[in-house]
């Protein structure tokens, strides 16, 4: 990719639920609010939203099961002609219709209308400015990524998951997944024990410091201890998931091609 010399459109996002949610238009007609979800592999649309807006999905004889930290749901395939985010338009998209309530293990309907996953997000360098509640979608590598004043943090991928090396309280380190659609930072029970926290699922606690590098750190980060078994495997041991309670103090750019996260100052 060549360096982009102009900053793209600043697209506002809603932070009301602690998630990065943007207004979208489907098929040129249907409006909704979708979460940018680096923890999801592809485009997901809530079944209730699809039904209310006459967006057809197809029952499969062997439905795919989608799992999250909190729950699971079955998925039905669907096709989307176009998806507009600001002035950006993506066309001819495959999606899966799911029950987002079931995935979040809630029943109140307080969730985004859909989730924009990694297979679409990786087409861009994405800047998320939590100080201004805006995102920017760069079509090429932005010129500021060559500026040493911005902290560059390499990441690795496991399937579609973005993993970074993290240090917690200067006493514990491990790999954590970066998730723009998690309102809190989650830590595994094993990590909680190492940090001397209560191994108490769902209880809001605090970690004194979490850092990705010398200039990319947050203090007194609210965290929730959560069983991450749906993401753990013999090939992947997660210390936790970096969510908005850590990210909200920063302006970050995720460069999926260069496998680097930039923290701006």
CATH-scheme architecture of the largest domain: Beta Barrel
CATH H-level superfamily title of the largest domain: Acid Proteases
Shape: globular
Just give the CATH class of the largest domain: Mainly Beta
CATH third-level topology of the largest domain: Cathepsin D, subunit A, domain 1
Helix and strand element order: EEEEEHEEEHEHEEEEEEEEHEEEHEE
Largest sheet: 6 strands, antiparallel
Overall structural class, as computed from helix and strand content, comes to mainly beta
Proportion of beta-strand residues: over 45%
* Number of structural domains: 2
Number of strands: 22
Computed over alpha carbons, the radius of gyration is: 18 Å
Number of helices: 5
Q: Which spans have pLDDT < 50 for at least 5 consecutive residues? A: 1-5
Average residue-wise pLDDT? 87
Give the spatial strand order of the biggest sheet.
Answer: 2-11-10-21-22-13
What fraction, in percent, of the residue positions are helical?
Answer: under 10%
Distance between the termini: 24 Å
């Amino acid at each position: 990719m060549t360096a982009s010399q102009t900053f793209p459109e600043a697209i506002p996002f809603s932070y009301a639920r602690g998630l990065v949610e943007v207004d979208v238009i489907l098929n040129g007609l249907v409006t909704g609010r979708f979460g940018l979800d680096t923890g999801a592999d592809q485009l997901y649309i809530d079944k209730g939203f699809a039904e209310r807006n006459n967006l057809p999905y197809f029952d499969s004889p062997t439905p795919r099961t989608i799992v999250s930290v909190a729950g699971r749901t079955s998925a039905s395939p669907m096709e989307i002609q176009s998806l507009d985010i600001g002035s950006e338009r993506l066309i001819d998209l495959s999606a899966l219709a799911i029950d987002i309530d079931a995935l979040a293990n809630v029943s109140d309907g307080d969730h985004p209308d859909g989730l924009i996953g990694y297979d679409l997000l990786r087409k861009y360098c994405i800047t998320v400015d939590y100080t201004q509640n805006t995102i920017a979608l760069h079509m090429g590598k932005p010129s500021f990524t060559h500026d040493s004043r911005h902290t560059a943090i390499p990441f690795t991928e496991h399937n579609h998951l973005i993993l970074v090396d993290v240090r917690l309280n200067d006493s514990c380190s491990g790999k954590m997944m970066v998730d723009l659609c998690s309102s809190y930072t989650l830590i595994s029970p094993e990590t909680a024990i190492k940090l001397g926290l209560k191994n108490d699922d769902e209880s809001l606690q605090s970690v004194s410091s979490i850092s990705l590098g010398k200039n990319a750190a947050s203090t007194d980060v609210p965290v929730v201890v959560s069983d991450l078994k749906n993401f753990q495997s013999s090939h992947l041991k997660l210390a936790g998931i970096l969510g908005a309670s850590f990210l909200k103090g920063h302006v970050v750019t995720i460069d999926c091609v260069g496998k680097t996260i930039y923290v701006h100052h």
